[in-house]
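Researcher: Quick test of sequence recovery. Tokens follow.
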């Protein structure tokens, strides 16, 4: 089954768990990059906090990357 995952600061993503979104808490840039690498093949959408999106930069546009949505600030 396709997965939706939230990635970034836990305080910004915790509410999405109520909607069934898996949350990967990542408080530092290194944590964000490590969590991104741990995404499974069935992850199709990743909700990113603005800070997490900035940490990933051009990685988001790599071929085969899941679709991403950056949450508003």
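Model:
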């Amino acid at each position: 089954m396709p997965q939706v995952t939230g990635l970034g600061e836990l305080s910004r993503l915790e509410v999405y768990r109520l909607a069934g979104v898996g949350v990967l808490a990542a408080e530092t840039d290194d944590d964000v990059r490590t969590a991104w690498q741990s995404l499974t093949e069935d992850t199709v959408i990743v909700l990113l906090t603005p800070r997490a999106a900035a940490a990933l930069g051009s990685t988001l546009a790599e071929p085969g990357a899941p679709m991403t949505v950056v949450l508003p600030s």
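Residues 58 and 65 are 11 Å apart (CA to CA).
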